[in-house]
Amino acid sequence: MASSIVNVPCNVQAIKGLDCQNYIGLRPSRNLKFNCVRTGTTARRPRLFVVRASEKNDGPVKKMGLSDEECEAAVVAGNVPKAPPVPRKPAAPVGTPVVPSLPLNRRPRRNRKSPVLRAAFQETQLSPANFVYPLFIHEGEEDTPIGAMPGCYRLGWRHGLVEEVGKARDVGVNSVVLFPKVPDALKSSAGDEAYNDNGLVPRAIRLLKDKYPDLVIYTDVALDPYSSDGHDGIVREDGVIMNDETVHQLCKQAVSQARAGADVVSPSDMMDGRIGAIREALDAEGFQHVSIMSYTAKYASSFYGPFREALDSNPRFGDKKTYQMNPANYREALVETHEDESEGADILLVKPGLPYLDIIRLLRDNSSLPIAAYQVSGEYSMIKAGGVLKMIDEEKVMMESLMCLRRAGADIILTYFALQAAKCLCGEKR
Ligand code: PBG
Hints:
Blueprint: E1 33-38, E2 49-54, H1 68-76, H2 115-120, E3 131-138, E4 144-145, E5 153-156, H3 160-170, E6 175-180, H4 200-211, E7 216-221, E8 234-235, E9 241-242, H5 243-260, E10 264-267, H6 274-284, E11 291-298, H7 305-311, H8 332-343, E12 347-351, H9 357-366, E13 371-375, H10 377-388, H11 394-408, E14 412-415, H12 418-425
Parallel strand pairs: 3-5, 3-6, 3-14, 6-7, 7-10, 10-11, 11-12, 12-13, 13-14
Antiparallel strand pairs: 1-2, 4-5, 8-9
Helix pairs in contact: 4-5, 5-6, 10-11
This protein binds ligand PBG.
């Protein structure tokens, strides 16, 4: 089931909900009747049921007058029937220079000359099935708008969340990733709330799975929403983020999420060795079927600003440069890739998205695993802001940015545009 952002000149809706009942270009025939024929059993062949199309009810073939032979004979005899004349050459505007045509044997524009040809030769497809919808949740009853991310809300986990997921499913987005806004009083330096089986995320997972059993739920594995320091790991008194002790906590967090019903746990913390440790912890608890999407190449990026406002998770001091990667580095992404692959990651993620297309392509070319791209909060907000200020066409830029992430090599895209873009792909007017 693929859809495209090109508008093909036809009225067939490309996608219709999840149980795609509509087929492009296929129409069930009213005339065909199917008969079930039972074959006899022989020594060499067991009895088979064969389905044959019957033409009994096809109705009479319409008669137009002359037979095929008479038509052919007429043409052979020189009585060629009339067809429309060859169209005249369209005129160029007055003043167009008259020049000899360039002696080119390759004119790539030929393959771009009509919408049908362009659609036929399109190399990359974009479908709601490629999207993972990140959702912010909180304990409140109401949905609270997020100032720095127009159109995004901290959703009440009992109502707003369930409604938003329902809307996404209606347009073919059946994967979500949850980010909790944790009450300050539950934050601590070791982030122990992260593995509370009755915490906000496990409760939300249980509720969603109860309502939508086939929904694919991704979770974020990192301590920052639960850390009183706003860091992804445990902070030592000298400011060092403690690696192995953090990994110990992350394993408990991942297992707790799996126990609640998470399908894919996604460590976004960038500690060393966490993929192998989490795999082992999941397996030890009987969660062999739970996947790990590793934030393999996660850069220390300023594009995360709006997200940290959304969750109130700004680091209380310093930055995340001792664990997230230096935006200047390319080869280092391969070090992380090889590590995550050998430790058992199922999906490799690159983050941010659009400014890091080269890294997406690097991972695509160096790993056979599925690649995910995260179009982060700052990328989203820039497009939204540009659209609101009428500096760019928001919808077109949104679709182009998503298509480009796919072209660079991303199989799936985590994007706050998931619902809006899927509506667009389904031909729904805003
Ligand atoms: C933290 C986390 C962050 C994002 C996803 N998980 C922020 C950070 O690393 O500080 C950012 C997502 C976004 O900006 O949209 N574990």
